[in-house]
Amino acid sequence: MIGLAGVGGEFLNTWLLLSLVLLIAALFKSSGAAVAVGIIGYFVLGMVNIPMIALIRKYTWLKWNPLNMFNFSAQLGLPTLSKITKLTDVQLFWGNLAYIILFLVLGLLFFRRREV
Description:
single chain; mainly alpha
């Protein structure tokens, strides 16, 4: 059973993913291409996570990348994951919020330049 914190983590992860997909959609001229990239990107995230963990071990500054932020809900359920992500729950929370805002603002800026 997922606790309240886990639900909150999933909620933030969903918003992070949605903001990233909106940014990607705003960058593409074709909506179909944007949707395809969003769907493929969702599945690629799982495959990229393992090499990203190895890179974070080697280069600790990479812990702030948006892909690492997707580990927030998993870390809420398994606190020892902080040894892998190199971030606390609070840092992951604020990192998620920062990337959500950044991606939404960039998506809005790029969308305004699009000819619809």
